[in-house]
Amino acid sequence: MMVWYWVIGILSFLLGVVAGFYLAVQYMKKQMANMQMSEAEIQAMARSMGRNLNKKQLAQITRQMKNVNEKNKQSLFKKKK
Q1: How far apart are CA 41 and CA 35, in angstroms?
Q2: What mean pLDDT comes out for the span 39-53?
Q3: Which pLDDT band holds residue 79 (cuts at 50, 70, 90)?
Q4: Of 10, 12, 57, 69, which one's alpha carbon is 20 to 30 angstroms from that of 20?
Q5: Backbone angles phi, psi at 70, to 5 degrees
Q6: Contact assessment for residue 55 and residue 35, using Cβ atoms and an 8 Å cutoff
Q7: Is 39 in contact with 62 (CB distance < 8 Å)?
């Protein structure tokens, strides 16, 4: 009789771990798709890496990030076949 308590406890724990992992992955995908960086944040990140971006480079990076975010949003919400 005591064995069933252990079996149910272990199965519940494993189910919770699997469900928690799945929900965490879905949450992170959603957060990454909605991630936006301002030009000041991009400039600060570039400076921390030892680079100084001019306005043209900054505009190009901002445009690329926007395009990537749009593609991620579209692929995230597409139905999987």
Answers
A1: 12
A2: 90
A3: low
A4: 69
A5: -65, -40
A6: no
A7: yes
- Note the Cα 18 to chain centre separation in Å: 18
- Size (the chain), residues: 81
pTM equals: 0.51
What does the alpha-carbon distance between residue 25 and residue 31 come to, in Å, rounded to a whole number?
Answer: 10
Distance CA(38)–CA(62), nearest Å, equals: 8
More confidently predicted of 5 and 35: 5
**pLDDT grade for 77, boundaries at 50, 70 and 90:** low
Instruction: Check: CB of residue 58 under 8 Å from CB of residue 40.
Output: no
- Confirm if 46 and 52 have CB atoms less than 8 A apart: yes
Please give the structure tokens belonging to residue 21: 């992992």
CA angle 38, 61, 74 (to 5 degrees): 85
